[in-house]
Amino acid sequence: MQNIKNEQSERLLIAISGGIGAGKSIISKHIHKYFNIPKLDFDQLGHQVLTDDIFFKRQLIHEFGSTITSETVQGSKPIIDRKALGSIVFNDSSKLLWLEQQMHPRIQALFSEKLALLPPSPYTLVEVSLFFDKYQTLHSLFDA
Fold this sequence. Notes:
Helices cover 50% and strands 16% of the residues. It is α/β, with parallel strands linked by helices. The two termini are 17 Å apart. The radius of gyration is 16 Å and the shape is elongated. It has a three-stranded parallel beta sheet with strand order 1-5-2, with helices on both faces. A two-stranded antiparallel sheet has the order 3-4. It has one domain: P-loop containing nucleotide triphosphate hydrolases (Rossmann fold), CATH 3.40.50.
């Protein structure tokens, strides 16, 4: 992950972090809108991982069972029911740890991909709720 900063040396990464209801989304939305600063949202990246990564979906179903899939099916791809998954992992710390160990590297890889595709800008906002708790490996990439 260290090479992100080298590739984006002209781009300052600004983390907007806080707990649920802290106002991260409102602040990043307004800064993005009024100053035209590109932004990335780790929650959205996490949702994209659960939506698009079919290999990972299979891993999740193998680990947690088919109860984490919804009745609706996208073509032949199962849809992960985040509420069902949450009800399992938030009641078992070892399952939550397993999920985090699987999700965070995928989210970080997707972050790298998305960052490289952003239009040139001196700044990029990154909304990340678990920045201080779960994403220590990213700290060195950020400027503010």
